[in-house]
Each structure stands twice: as structure tokens, then as C-alpha cells.
TrEMBL record:
Major localization listed first in the record, in broad terms: membrane
Protein name, entry field: MFS transporter
GO molecular function: transmembrane transporter activity
Residue ranges of the TM segments: 12-37, 49-72, 84-105, 111-132, 153-172, 184-203, 239-259, 279-299, 306-323, 408-431, 443-462, 482-500
Pfam assignment, any one: Sugar_tr
Length: 509
């Protein structure tokens, strides 16, 4: 490849990757701020129910992604890759900005969660069209022997988008007081996205159409009905199903386990302070992200299939041990108390309801600090307690020591390595499965069902399984959420090993 062509290719990769990264950033700040959003847009009578409702709304954006894949994939195969993912970029940016503008539940009632749901669905539709366009666009510019490496830059964008979302959130938290951030500062990351989208639009608008698609269009070989040719043709539909159940389904649950469920587990199950969770996730993602390129490059040398299957197998066999190790790292029952103190205060709400807040701060000999808050409603200065019922709400925030922090960074990093094995090669793998005239449509649907449905539902399903197990006093309730990703990945591994053809195809049709 000449230096001029190589420079042009990296310009194309850069422009495609930046835009896709911004769309992932837009999509993931909702999940990163789920614990705060649950207090702003949902009724607060039951904090656990509000958080689960927020996760369900988060998952709704994933569930609708296949519809975005169908709609925008069809447009991409009819009119071109470039213009389609320009539209998805603007749609995503607008929806994200508006989420930051919606008034809270206390102001507009049930209109708040309804508007958030609508905007979340628009985000999902936009992302459903973005990824397939960007991956296809880069792949159709890349030489065959470097396709895995070149498209792996697109694969980094999902993790980099999460990485940037954490960076912006951490920066906003640092610039504001805790009260300011909880009051209005959490909206800032949503507002910032509109500036990034405008920059990406200016970069992308001067890009040329994919040469392979342009050639097919000039010779009249584009599809007149991409949906029918993708899913009405039995031969092609077989590959759509194989892509979904033999590769993307397992990749989806491993991706969301290693990054989103890990984050939720640290914050909600292990009760680690949110700022520390953001910090250790940030470091683990920063260390792990380059391996997307490593495994993309290796897939050009060794083939895509066995790298992805290997990542699934290792993840399935090690998740239980990893999460048990993570949980025990901050298990206070195994730590020795050094000092402990309790303070009490009375909070009066706008409806004149009073709560007595008891805050107990305990320091352990290894440097861990746990703050436990108990809230008891008051009436005329007296606690409100129903016979046989404990009316206290308990929240725990654990500030971990440096040694425990690096232990947890290591375990999250290991999970990110699994993610890079299954996700790094998959763009090239999917692109190579389908012909040019229906590629955008055919690859987008299995990708977004695998990631949007099977992966996107993971935080809500896993949290529900763990919560139910805890309510039933299961001794290892904190591990029960893992049955979902392990089960899905195992089914995908079996199908992939038995039925996927590891021989890569050339993009020359």
C-alpha cells in the first residue's frame, strides 16, 4: 500500500471512529449516571424499584437497536454508507442533549420518565444505524490482509466512548460540589455531547463514499430491496442466524458483563463509592483498550473464529471465580474495625415530612472506610414504626484502600481482555459474511440483536436475579446474576464451534 493511500485510510478510520465514539459516549452516559437518574425521573417511594426502572429504560435503548439496524441499514444499502451514518450521528446527538434538558419527576410527574423513554428509544434507533455503517465503511476501504486490524479501530470506540463518558463525569464531579452535581451538574455530560457531535459532523461531511459501494452503485449492482434480499433469501438468512447465535450473542453478553455489569456490581452490590468506581473503571478501560487492536491484528494472521471462541470459553470458565474474588475484596466481615462513630441529624422535606438520619462511619485497620446511613421517618418528633416492620432505609458507601483498588482494577482489566478477544475481530468477521449490496442491512441486524437485546438486557436481568436471590437469603446471592451471561455465552460457544465456517471471505464482489 502506498504511503498516500495509507494516510488516506487512517484519515477515514479516524473520522469514522471519532463519530462512532461520540455516539457510544452519548449512549453510555445514561448508564453511567443510572443511579442519579433513578432519583430524578422516577418515583422515590422504592429506591430499588426506581433503579430497576432506570435499568429497564437503559435496556429499552438496546432493545430498539435492531429496528434502527433495519431502518438505517436499508438506507445504507440503498443510498450509501456516508449519508446514512451522518443522519444517525445528528439524531443521537439531539436526543442526548434533550435528555439533559427534561425536567425531573417532581416538576412534571410521569411525563418525565415518559420523555426519557422516548429519547432513549431515539438513541437506540440512531446507534442501530451507526455501527454497521462505520464498520462497513472502514472495511470496504481496507486491504483484505489488514481488515481485522483496520476495523478494530472501530471496535475500540464503544469502550473509548464509555472511557470518555467516565472522564467527563469525573471532571464534572471534581468541578462541582456534591450537592451541585446531584442537583443539576449531572446534566452537564448530556449537554457537552452536542458540541462533540457538531465537531464530528464537520469532520465527516467531507468524507467520500465507500469505493466498493460507489462502484456497485455505478454498475447498477446495488439492491432494490435490501430487507427482502437479506432476510427473505434462505441462503443469506442462514448466515444472519449463524452470525447472531454463533458469534454476536455471546460477544454481546461478554461485552456488557466486563464493562457495564462490572460497574454496576462494584457500585450497587459491593457498595463502593461512585467516584472510586469511576476511577478504577477508567484505569482498567485505559489499560485494556489497546488489546482491541492486538486481537484485531491477530485475527488477520490466525483467523477470526478461534480468537472469538477462545475469549468466550475463558470468560465462561472464570467469571464465577473473578466475581467471588471481587466481592470478597471489600467484604467488611473479613476486616478488623479500628474506630467507629455515629452522628444523627434531622432533615425536613418540602412536604414538612421529617427524617432522622443516623450516619455511622467505621474505619478498618487496612484503611477501608465504610459509611452506613439509616433513615427513619419522624412525626411530631417521634419515629414512625409499624408493628413488625422495620421502616429504615439503609445505604452503605465503602471507600476502599489503595491495595484493594488495584486488586479490583486488575479483575476488571481481565474482564476487558475477554471483551477485546470477542469484540476486536467481530466487525471484520461480520462484514466478510455478506455481499456488498446487502452488507449494511445483513450485518447490522444480528449485531444489534446480539448486543442490543442479549447484551443490553444483561444489567437489568442480572440485577433482578441477584436481587431475587438476596431476598430469598441465598448465601451467594451476589453471584446469581452471572448465570445469564454464562448461559448465553455457552449456547453461543457451542453453536459457533460446531457451525461457523472460520474461512474468511474476500470483499471483491
Amino acid at each position: 500500500m502506498s504511503s498516500a493511500k495509507k494516510s488516506s485510510l487512517f484519515t477515514i478510520i479516524g473520522a469514522s471512529s471519532v463519530g462512532t465514539m461520540i455516539e457510544w459516549y452519548d449512549f453510555y452516559i445514561f448508564g453511567s449516571l443510572a443511579s442519579i437518574i433513578s432519583t430524578k425521573f422516577f418515583p422515590q417511594g422504592n429506591p430499588t424499584a426506581a433503579f430497576l426502572s432506570t435499568l429497564a429504560t437503559f435496556a429499552a435503548g438496546f432493545v430498539v437497536r435492531p429496528f434502527g439496524a433495519l431502518f438505517f441499514g436499508r438506507l445504507g444499502d440503498l443510498i450509501g454508507r456516508k449519508y446514512t451514518f451522518m443522519v444517525t450521528l445528528m439524531l443521537m446527538g439531539g436526543a442526548t442533549f434533550l435528555i439533559g434538558c427534561v425536567p425531573g419527576y417532581e416538576t412534571i410527574g410521569f411525563m418525565a420518565p415518559l420523555l426519557i423513554l422516548v429519547l432513549r428509544l431515539l438513541q437506540g434507533l440512531a446507534l442501530g444505524g451507526e455501527y454497521g455503517g462505520a464498520a462497513t465503511y472502514v472495511a470496504e476501504h481496507s486491504p483484505a490482509n489488514q481488515r481485522g486490524f483496520m476495523t478494530s479501530w472501530i471496535q475500540t470506540t464503544a469502550t473509548v466512548g464509555l472511557f470518555v463518558s467516565l472522564l467527563v463525569i469525573m471532571g464534572t464531579r471534581a468541578a462541582l460540589t456534591k450537592e451541585q452535581f446531584n442537583d443539576w451538574g449531572w446534566r452537564v455530560p448530556f449537554w457537552v455531547s452536542i458540541l462533540m457531535v457538531l465537531v464530528s459532523y464537520l469532520i465527516r461531511k467531507n468524507m467520500e463514499e465507500s469505493p466498493i459501494f460507489a462502484k456497485a452503485k455505478a454498475s447498477g449492482k446495488t439492491s432494490t430491496n435490501p430487507l427482502k434480499e437479506s432476510f427473505g433469501n434462505k441462503y443469506n438468512f442462514k448466515f444472519v442466524l449463524l452470525a447472531l447465535f454463533g458469534a454476536v450473542m455471546g460477544q454481546g453478553v461478554i461485552w456488557y458483563t466486563g464493562q457495564f455489569y462490572a460497574m454496576s456490581f462494584l457500585e450497587k452490590t459491593m457498595n463502593i463509592a461512585k467516584d472510586q468506581v469511576d476511577s478504577l473503571m477508567f484505569i482498567a478501560l485505559m489499560l485494556g483498550t489497546p488489546f482491541f487492536l492486538v486481537f484485531g491484528w491477530l485475527s488477520d494472521k490466525l483467523g477470526r473464529k478461534w480468537i472469538m471462541m477462545g475469549g468466550m470459553l475463558i470468560a465462561i470458565c472464570s467469571y464465577w471465580f473473578i466475581y467471588e474474588s471481587m466481592y470478597q475484596t471489600t467484604n467488611l466481615q473479613h476486616k478488623t474495625v479500628q474506630t467507629s462513630s455515629t452522628t444523627a441529624s434531622v432533615v425536613t422535606h418540602t412536604n414538612n415530612q421529617q427524617d432522622s438520619i443516623y450516619s455511622t462511619s467505621t474505619t478498618y485497620t487496612d484503611g477501608t472506610v465504610a459509611v452506613v446511613e439509616k433513615k427513619l421517618p419522624l412525626q411530631n418528633g417521634l419515629p414512625i414504626v409499624e408493628a413488625g416492620k422495620n421502616k429504615q432505609d439503609i445505604s452503605t458507601s465503602i471507600h476502599i484502600n489503595s491495595s484493594d483498588k488495584w486488586t479490583l482494577i486488575f479483575w476488571v482489566f481481565v474482564q476487558v481482555l475477554f471483551v477485546t478477544m470477542v469484540y476486536g475481530p467481530i466487525a471484520a468477521f461480520l462484514v466478510e459474511m455478506f455481499p456488498t449490496k446487502i452488507r449494511y442491512t445483513s450485518m447490522s441486524l444480528p449485531y444489534h440483536i446480539g448486543n442490543g437485546v442479549f447484551g443490553g438486557l444483561l444489567p437489568a436481568v442480572a440485577t433482578y436475579l441477584a436481587t431475587t436471590a438476596k431476598a430469598n437469603n441465598h448465601p451467594q446471592w451476589y453471584l446469581q446474576g452471572l448465570w445469564y451471561p454464562i448461559g448465553v455465552a455457552l449456547v453461543c460457544l457451542i453453536i459457533g464451534v460446531l457451525y461457523l465456517n472460520p474461512k474468511d471471505k474476500e470483499i471483491n464482489d
